[in-house]
Amino acid sequence: MHKSKRDKSLAYQGRSNKAVVMGMLERGGKVKARVIASRKKHHIEPVMAECVESGSHIITDEMTTYAVLESKYQREIINHAIEYANGHIHTNGIENFWALLKRALGGTYISVEPIHLDAYVAEQVFRFNHREDCNDAGRFIQVMSQITGKRLTYAALTQRQNLN
To answer: Given pLDDT bands bounded at 50, 70 and 90, which one contains residue 24?
Structure first.
């Protein structure tokens, strides 16, 4: 990447009309991801408190907002400007999830309305978490077994979600 483009991409702070998806992966476990309103601490802290037990060991990239997590968690940082892995300190697992999510959004679905982004993220979380359990047919059967007696109306589907 040319230096001028790299400087711009490193300075990106989730501004403009970009949606923010927060995700976390337990080593050897499941991924959790959801759409949040912004990359600010008052949007990140409640999600972390809900999904990660206080005192847990976490590994993050160098985003400055994550500094607020150091009081509740044992945090280690990987600086992607310098390296992508340093022994056990890496974010490669969640980066794999992001690559699959982006490939699905850009390639399979092509255009995603922001109000439906949470549903697309939830689908990819399900696929990722069940990638080793079974194949596509097995996942389809699992999904079909869970929808019996449930109804999704057009009004509920098109209702605007509150991201705050």
So the answer is: very high
In this prediction, residue 48 carries a pLDDT of 93
CA quadruple 64, 125, 90, 70: dihedral positive or negative?
positive
Q: What is the pLDDT of residue 164?
A: 44
Helix (H, G, I), strand (E, B) or coil at 80: coil
Both tokens of residue 152?
């999704």
Mean pLDDT within 26-41: 92
Q: Do the bridges between strand 31-36 and strand 20-25 make them parallel or antiparallel, or are there none, so unpaired?
A: antiparallel
Is-contact 85 92, C-beta < 8 A?
yes
Q: Report the half-sphere exposure of 36 (CA within 13 A, side-chain side).
A: 17
Coil vs helix vs strand at 12: coil
Of 106, 99, 142, 101, which Cα lies nearest the Cα of 124? 101
Range 3-158 has CATH code 3.10.105.10 = no
Helix (H) or strand (E) holding 35: strand 31-36
Task: Quote the pLDDT of residue 163.
Answer: 46
